[in-house]
Amino acid sequence: MKNSMQKSIVVAALLLLNLFSAIGQEKPFNVINLKPDGSQYIKFGMNLQVWGRYSELNPGSKIGTNEVDEAYDVVIRRLRLQAMGMLTENIFFHLQLGQNNINFQQNSGPSNAPLSIMDAVGEYHFNDKLHIGGGLTAWGAGTTRYSANSSAAQLTLDTPMYQQFANTSSTFGNRNLSIYAKGDLGDFNYRVAITNPYRNTNNAIGLNSTLSTETPRAQYAGILTYSFLEKESLEDPYHKGTYLGTKKVFNIALGYMTQAKAMWHLTPDAKVAYDDMRILGFDVFHDSPINDKGAAITAYASYNNNNYGKNYIQAVSVPNPAVGDNTLINGSGAGFIGVGTGNIYYAQLGYLFAKSSNESKKGRFQPYLATQIAALEALDTPMTMYEIGANYYTTGTFGPKFSLNYQNRAVYDKTLLGKYTQSDRLGTVVLQCQVSF
Fold first, then answer.
1. Model-level pTM?
2. What distance in Å separates the CA atoms of residue 109 and residue 322, rounded to the nearest whole number?
3. 189: nearest Cα among 241, 225, 147
4. In degrees rounded to 5, what are phi and psi of residue 146?
5. Three-state SS for 117?
6. Which of 107-111, 177-181, 232-236 has the lowest mean pLDDT?
C-alpha cells in the first residue's frame, strides 16, 4: 500500500513538472502522448488575463452608494485551466475550469470567487465527417465566429461580446447544455447543436419584448464554413482571432440560431404575446503572412440579422466596474447597447510586424482597429463603438502578451415615448497582461 502511494505521488509530481515546464515556451499547450504516434494524447493549458482599467462611466452608475462618473479598477478578466485529449481512437474529452470578471465589486473578496465548470464534454468520433458529443459546451453558441472564441489568441483586447450574448439563455453566455454534431465535408466544416437553455428568472414583462420566464423551448443553432485555403481545427469549439502568420486561412461562414417563444411582451390590451428568437449570421475571416519575414495581416467582418421581438435591446457590460438599477438603458459602468432586434455589423483589422533580424529580439507588435455598428429597431441612430490598440508578444508567439486598448462607445438617453437617442460618447482605456500556455 505504501509503495503504491509513493508511486502515485511520483507519477503526479512528474505530470505536474511536465505541465508547468510549458510556461514560457512557444507551444500553447503541453502535450502528453498516450501513444508514440501522437494519435492518443492529453493536453493541458492555462490562460490568465489581468486588466488595469480606467473607465468613463455611464450616467447613473454607482460604486457603493455613491453615483460616480469615472473609475479605476484591476480585473482578472479571465482565468482558464483546461485539459483535453483523445483517450482512445474514438473518445475525446474536454474539461475546462475557470472564472471571469473578478474585481473589487465582489463583496466577499476576489479570493472567494469559486472556479466554475466552463466546459465538460464527452465526444465520439465516427470519422472525420462526423463527431457527436454532449455536455456543457460552446459548440452550439451563436451564429458567427466569435460566438465561441479562443481567449488566448484574440486579436483585439476582448472578443466582440455581442456575438456571445446572442442566445437567450438567462446568462446570455456562450456555454450551454447541448448535444452537438460537427465534422469536415471536403472544403466545408459544420457544427450543429440542440441546446437546453437556462431559464430566465427576471420577470420584467412590458410593451417591448423581453426574455420569457416560462420553461424554455429547445434552441437550435448551426454554422457552415467554407475554407478557401488551409482548414482550421475542429478539436474544440473556440476560434482563434489571429494565427500570427503561422497559417494561411480564408473562410466564409453562414450561421443560424432559433428558439420558439423565447421572448414575450404585453399587447396594448394587456395580453401576453410571444416572439420567437431568430438570428442569422454571415462572416469572413482572413489571416495570412504577407512576406517571408513573418509580417502578417488579420482581417474579419461579420453581419447579423437579429429578431428578438419588438424593440428588444441588451446592454453589453463585461466586466462591470460599477452597478446601477434596471432603468439604465446603456447598462451601468462601461456598458453600451450592443444586442437587440435589428442589424449588427462588426469588423476588425490587425497587422503583425515582421520578425527582427536580430535573433535575440523575439518580441513583436501587432496594432489593430475594430468597430461595431448596431442598427437596432429601438434606437434613433445606430450605436457605434470603435477600438484601437496593440499587442506585444514577448516571445513573438502565443504566450506572454501585453495589450493596450482604447474603446469609445455611444451612450443613449432613455425616453418615455419614441426611440432612444444618442446623448454622449464615453471611453475606456485598458492595459492587459496575459500569461498562457
1. 0.89
2. 15
3. 225
4. -90, 15
5. strand
6. 107-111
